[in-house]
Amino acid sequence: PETGSLSIVVLGASGDLAKRKTFPALFRLYRQGFLLPNEVCVFGYARTEIDNNEFRNRLRGYLVPGKDSSPEQLEEVSKFLYLVKYVSGSYDSKDGFCNLDKDISQHESLKNSADGSSRRLFYLALPPSVYPSVCKMIKTYCMNKSDLGGWTRIVVEKPFGKDLESAEQLSTQIGELFEEPQIYRIDHYLGKELVQNMLVLRFANRFFMPQWNRDNIANVQIVFRENFGTEGRGGYFDQYGIIRDIIQNHLLQVFCLVAMEKPVSLKPEHIRDEKVKVLESVQPIKDDEVVLGQYEGYRDDPTVPDHSNTPTFATIILRVHNERWEGVPFILKAGKALNARKADIRVQFKDVPGDIFQCQKQGRNEFVIRLQPSEAMYMKLTVKKPGLEMATIQSELDLSYRQRYHAVIIPEAYERLILDTIRGDQQHFVRRDELKASWNMFTPLLQRIDKGEFKSIPYKPGTRGPAEADKLLLEKAGYVRTHG
Ligand code: BG6
């Protein structure tokens, strides 16, 4: 492992993302000994003019596990907060970033280990509009200057652009300042346990390798559902909609891992090469293979325009034009204010040819990977109904993580991804060409939605979304529902 001082700078430190995700993830890494007090300093940078103590107090509430925290837990939080230092400044001010650099340098001079190298990680928990100016400030005033090695890395969050053009513009602006190996584009779905399990499942199991193709698979569904609306985020959400918020990034990343070919090795570049290839094999999305919806009540949010057509639900069929997948629909479906909070991948197999049991009406073989909540994998299959008669029923082979691995605490996505940024592993981060290919896929549709050429169908909160989506899947994707 690398040694030397480690400075983690969270820019946008008083924002929601930083308080709810970034700092708690850092705290968990600290608690498990991945961030060592004798080398790390965590800097919070934001515009609000407050002092260290005030900042630490504001953060404390997000770190303590609950009202019934033990004195030891409270003590751990205090020890971590002791490593946190707040610097206030604006996102385009020379003074602010010079102050930040001064503080980082001071930390480095105090903590430097024998090799004297320094590691600087800048986490931009900020709106993308300020990425270019912040990156410029970091590049000009805050780079690691140690002759003895180390690195400077930046972490950026979505929304990374709004369409192909804006994403490419942003990539170019940042690309002029930092090399690709220094840029970590986070998609937190890539940090989820069962998403990371996907490659192992596919390429370490003889069961799946010969089955995973158009000869055996009828369709694949990747579904994200939330049982709450855009509460408090309507203003942001209305600018983006469900396709930019969930489908173009989270679901498409999952799609890549399900559909890509086997990489040459586990090297990040080999994996990302395959992801780009499969993205580039997707055919243009057809108008009649899309259903958009908006839940009733969405526009009651005062920050949402009265006539907004922004989709809060979408079902989109992707068609992959390659040897493995020709003819297999990949259904990406996401919605807010639906009947459940769940994300899963459902791989539905074709009917058994010449079915002597006539059991097909009971449902097809299906392999389900539940990403959340309660991580699980299960196979729906047909078995003989126990008893004297020769009858069949659908049953399940079930691997529930909670039962099987109850002693393991599954890490949070952000915790894992931040650790990767410190270790310099880009496997679970989105490369520039991947991002471009993903925007390329959705931009024509998004432009038409933005122009109002595509209508969102109203649906009642707490339901499965517009009935048109189920109809689409039945008619265009031959998707037969085997669950509630
Ligand atoms: C975020 C979206 O990226 O992911 C949110 O902006 C969404 O709208 C969230 O709620 C879902 O993440 P998770 O990990 O709770 O499924």
UniProtKB/TrEMBL annotation:
<feature type="domain" description="Glucose-6-phosphate dehydrogenase C-terminal">
    <location>
        <begin position="199"/>
        <end position="475"/>
    </location>
</feature>
<dbReference type="GO" id="GO:0009051">
    <property type="term" value="P:pentose-phosphate shunt, oxidative branch"/>
</dbReference>
<keyword id="KW-0521">NADP</keyword>
<comment type="similarity">
    <text>Belongs to the glucose-6-phosphate dehydrogenase family.</text>
</comment>
<dbReference type="GO" id="GO:0004345">
    <property type="term" value="F:glucose-6-phosphate dehydrogenase activity"/>
</dbReference>
<dbReference type="Pfam" id="PF02781">
    <property type="entry name" value="G6PD_C"/>
</dbReference>
<protein>
    <recommendedName>
        <fullName>Glucose-6-phosphate 1-dehydrogenase</fullName>
        <ecNumber>1.1.1.49</ecNumber>
    </recommendedName>
</protein>
<dbReference type="InterPro" id="IPR022675">
    <property type="entry name" value="G6P_DH_C"/>
</dbReference>
<dbReference type="GO" id="GO:0006006">
    <property type="term" value="P:glucose metabolic process"/>
</dbReference>
<comment type="function">
    <text>Catalyzes the rate-limiting step of the oxidative pentose-phosphate pathway, which represents a route for the dissimilation of carbohydrates besides glycolysis.</text>
</comment>
<keyword id="KW-0313">Glucose metabolism</keyword>
<dbReference type="InterPro" id="IPR036291">
    <property type="entry name" value="NAD(P)-bd_dom_sf"/>
</dbReference>
<feature type="domain" description="Glucose-6-phosphate dehydrogenase NAD-binding">
    <location>
        <begin position="9"/>
        <end position="197"/>
    </location>
</feature>
<dbReference type="InterPro" id="IPR022674">
    <property type="entry name" value="G6P_DH_NAD-bd"/>
</dbReference>
<keyword id="KW-0560">Oxidoreductase</keyword>
<dbReference type="InterPro" id="IPR001282">
    <property type="entry name" value="G6P_DH"/>
</dbReference>
<dbReference type="Pfam" id="PF00479">
    <property type="entry name" value="G6PD_N"/>
</dbReference>
<dbReference type="GO" id="GO:0005829">
    <property type="term" value="C:cytosol"/>
</dbReference>
<dbReference type="InterPro" id="IPR019796">
    <property type="entry name" value="G6P_DH_AS"/>
</dbReference>
<dbReference type="GO" id="GO:0050661">
    <property type="term" value="F:NADP binding"/>
</dbReference>
<keyword id="KW-0119">Carbohydrate metabolism</keyword>
<comment type="pathway">
    <text>Carbohydrate degradation; pentose phosphate pathway; D-ribulose 5-phosphate from D-glucose 6-phosphate (oxidative stage): step 1/3.</text>
</comment>
